[in-house]
Amino acid sequence: MGLTVEPLTPAFGARVSGFSIRGGFDDRVLAEIEAAFEEYSVLYFPSQPVDDDEQISFSERLGVLEGTLPGAVGAGTKVARITNVMPDGTLKDPNGQQALFTRANIFWHTDSSFKPVPAKASLLSARRIPNAGGDTEFASTRAAYESLPPSTQARLEGLIVIHDIAHSRAMLTPEALSAEQRAAMPPVEQSLLRANPVNGRKSLLIGSHTARIKGWSEADSKALLEELMAATIRPEHTYRHKWTVGDIVMWDNRAVLHRGHEYDEINDRRLMIRTTLAGYGPTVVDGAIQAEL
Ligand code: OGA
Ligand code: MN
């Protein structure tokens, strides 16, 4: 019995069922999951409750995990806690740096593009969901790229973009980033275009961490990045996930942007656990764009 893979939208995303993470599954199923991931970019696994160890083991069958960011709750572990609740059960101070840092997830972004090696994939499991809000929305930069006129696509070849976590945090408030985090995560260069290593389909490495296009004026850079964002977040390139506890959604950070919708952080509670699969290498080395990674 193979997996059941049902598209979520005409452009990207699939609901994947017919296997059990807890029950165990063989490498043939794993290969089918990997093939669906390369093709659909976002995989929704319904009714797959896991604890942290089970999520880590499942994720490690798919790749090598990143450590969590400096200054985050549980920094250096393999799971990121995307939440308004502290480990001791108290709510985060809504105006404190920890809460602000997490809240900047409301802007369209791709995970870890501010690191020299951007993330390949993220897996998010819903452990506790708020009564309202808190959906996660995805936008395909692959569908966006493919929708661009060939003349625009040609203009993008060879461009390098500067990604900087300070840029995305400053969209909310500069206080969202601590001095320790600023020092640990300097700006990095990324290739604007990426090609999927399996199917060759291209996508855009943009989002809230993208500060500017290398070598371009502020105005030209802003204009092109805005044009590319507008093409990406068109309704036909997006999928909005409404969570049920026990859901896992896995996404391709090379091919989609995502954002977390707001919820009542002061009176309600939301706990999502993320594991992140590391990419294979930097997209730019010494100013030179690397062949596909
Ligand atoms: C993330 C993220 C959004 C959300 O986990 O990387 O951006 O909806 N999450 O929690
Ligand atoms: Mn994210």
What does this structure look like?
The chain is an alpha+beta fold. The protein has one domain: 4-Layer Sandwich (Double-stranded beta-helix). The chain has eight helices and 17 strands. It has helices at residues 27-40, 52-62, 97-103, 141-147, 150-156, 165-170, 179-184, 218-232, and strands at residues 4-7, 14-17, 42-45, 80-83, 121-128, 136-140, 160-163, 188-191, 193-195, 202-204, 210-213, 238-241, 248-252, 256-260, 271-277, 284-285, 288-289. It has a seven-stranded mixed beta sheet with strand order 1-2-3-13-5-15-4, with helices on one face. A three-stranded antiparallel beta sheet has the order 12-6-14. β16 and β17 form a beta hairpin. The model has no long low-confidence stretch (mean pLDDT 96). The structure holds N-oxalylglycine (OGA) and manganese (II) ion.
Summarize it.
By secondary structure, the protein is α+β, with helices and mostly antiparallel strands.
Walk me through the topology.
Layout (H helix, E strand, L loop, with lengths): L3 E4 L6 E4 L9 H14 L1 E4 L6 H11 L17 E4 L13 H7 L17 E8 L7 E5 H7 L2 H7 L3 E4 L1 H6 L8 H6 L3 E4 L1 E3 L6 E3 L5 E4 L4 H15 L5 E4 L6 E5 L3 E5 L10 E7 L6 E2 L2 E2 L4
Parallel strand pairs: 2-3
Antiparallel strand pairs: 1-2, 3-13, 4-15, 5-13, 5-15, 6-12, 6-14, 7-8, 7-11, 9-10, 16-17
Bound molecules: N-oxalylglycine and manganese (II) ion.
Keyword list:
binds N-oxalylglycine; three-stranded antiparallel β-sheet; single chain; binds manganese (II) ion; globular; seven-stranded mixed β-sheet; alpha+beta; 25% helix; 293 residues; 17 strands; Double-stranded beta-helix
